[in-house]
Model the fold of this input.
Amino acid sequence: MLDKKERRFFFTDRQFQQLILTNDRLRQSNGSALRELRRVGRSNLTSKEAGIRLEMVAAQIIGVLQFREEILISARDQGAVELVIFEVRHICKDCTAPPEELEDHLGEEVPAPDPGHYRELDHLIELAQGTVARLWSGSIQRKPFPVAFSKGLRRLTSALLKQRRHLRETTLAPPRTRTEFRVPSDNSCSRCHQEMKIPDPDLAEPQGGHHGK
Done:
């Protein structure tokens, strides 16, 4: 895929799998955030301990996003390629084809999250922002909140917004990759270099042979 500056990504198989795993980790962290926010809403719990738990969840989300960004930076550096070339090579019946190499993911888009991921994330952001509004309006309590709680809730909301922005910016449509096929001009085997007899399909006789006039 291309990033916002139209630079191409080139994912190794390992990087591609790591990105898929980070989607799962983000959803797990979002589940933890939902539990903590519901606990605050049900019990009016705005203690220092509640704030610490919210901040810990925020740190988990930011950590996963930073890991994803490192993968994308690495993939972007490897992806300075504008053309993919497929080279066709002949192999005779006496030779063995070389083993297939581990597949890389040139020009592929970042693995998209499950559609439910976005719905859960939107709900979480609304819940976090609604919790902030209710608390500051004095509907739960009018005494000042512990600094740790305010800090934790603020950081969690920021982490959720960053997650949504990151996912939307990195799941763009895949680019059109230019490709070129190259066929050797001779008929030699690419392994033993012996000349091969390859029939010309244009000269093949039709079934039943020639028919005289």
Summary: Helices lie at 13-43, 48-78, 115-137, 147-170. Residues 13-43 form the longest helix (31 residues). The beta strands are 10-11, 83-87, 105-106, 178-182.
